[in-house]
Specification:
Order of helices and strands: HEHEEHEEH
Number of strands: 5
CATH architecture of the domain at 43-94: 2-Layer Sandwich
Shape: elongated
Number of helices: 4
Structural class: alpha+beta
Distance between the termini: 98 Å
Bound molecules: iron/sulfur cluster
Largest sheet: 3 strands, antiparallel
Helix content: 10-25%
Radius of gyration: 27 Å
CATH class of the domain at 43-94: Alpha Beta
Strand content: 15-25%
């Protein structure tokens, strides 16, 4: 009886042992292998990541400039992260959220805006500059 009263009093003055998920989430442990992301703008579509992937989760299409991952095949071994020469694949700590249907994630590189050609100053402009 006294033990129980002690427990009740203790629980009244201490923090709860559990979190109020999903309002309160626990930060990931460092080096957690959650999921794979890519910075598609840096990719050169060499295909090394897809050749190294042990579960055939990656598809690289050089002509289409696309990179595709099947998160349901990926075993998060990080082989693609290590082999990428441009270091554009990242292992992220957050886990993927659950999905109602199995689907791939496709990234397509958009054409970069052409930079303005450097124009030589005209004769008149050269005079003004001088
Ligand atoms: S290894 Fe890196 S640069 Fe090469 S295709 Fe894969 S993501 Fe792109
Ligand atoms: S982490 Fe491993 S399994 Fe997942 S895509 Fe990269 S190489 Fe393939």
């Amino acid at each position: 009886m006294f033990d129980m009263i002690g427990n009740v009093m203790n629980n009244l003055v201490t923090k709860p042992a559990t979190r109020k998920y999903p309002m309160e989430t626990r930060p990931s442990f460092s080096k957690t292998r959650g999921h794979i992301e890519i910075d598609i703008d840096k990719c050169i579509f060499c295909g090394m990541c897809s050749r190294k992937c042990p579960s055939n989760a990656l598809t690289v299409n050089r002509n289409e400039k696309s990179w595709e991952i099947d998160p349901f095949k990926c075993i998060i071994c990080n082989a693609c992260v290590e082999v990428c020469p441009k270091k554009c694949i990242m292992g992220c700590e957050m886990y993927n959220t659950s999905a109602p249907v199995k689907g791939k994630r496709k990234f397509v590189q958009q054409p970069q805006p052409a930079s303005e050609p450097v124009r030589e100053p005209e004769k008149e402009e050269k005079k003004i500059i001088a």
